[in-house]
Amino acid sequence: MATGDPFFAVKEEVEQNIASAETLFQSWTRIYSTVSSRDNEELQRTEEEINSFVEVTKHRVQEIGLTLSDPPAQSRDNAKNQRQELFESRQIFSIDNYSSRSRIEEVELDNTRFIENEALQQTILVQEQDEQLDSLYGTARNIHAIATTMGTEIEDQNM
């Protein structure tokens, strides 16, 4: 992983994904212009690859939009680490990934991604809860100190 600006790394990944989508679409256009029917197996497979690519990308963009509209409350370091983990766990979609998979493998891959995403979400939730519990512990400790001081002062005034 490059140590440069993450913006440029993500930008490069997006550009690669768009180039892959355009290549798939050019393949589909070429096949479509040479076949006599839309029932052609190669045309349908290429169409499925494009649709799958578009759906995965659309889902990811929606996730990003939702996160941006309602970001989780967390510390800067924690958020930076989670963004880093998410960035490193993402897979770049290429033509080779799609053209060599059967529909069952694609569904299994989608399920695996969903499970990984849910596990990441749960990890984030647990980390947020840990931070909240740490904050609650600090507050309880302060209240204990105040109560102890008040008790001491009351004893002093009683004497």
UniProtKB/TrEMBL annotation:
| Cellular localisation | Golgi apparatus membrane
For this UniProt record, give its keywords in alphabetical order, as a comma-separated list.
Golgi apparatus, Protein transport, Transport
The chain positions of domain T-SNARE coiled-coil homology read 123-159
Q: Which PROSITE patterns match?
A: T_SNARE (PS50192)
Q: Which GO terms describe its biological process?
A: Golgi vesicle transport; protein transport
Its Gene Ontology cellular component terms are: Golgi membrane
Family annotation (Pfam families): STX6_10_61_N
Highest taxon in the source lineage: Eukaryota
Please give the InterPro entries that the UniProt record associates with this protein: SNARE, Syntaxin-6/10/61_N, T_SNARE_dom
Protein name, UniProt field: 13681_t:CDS:1
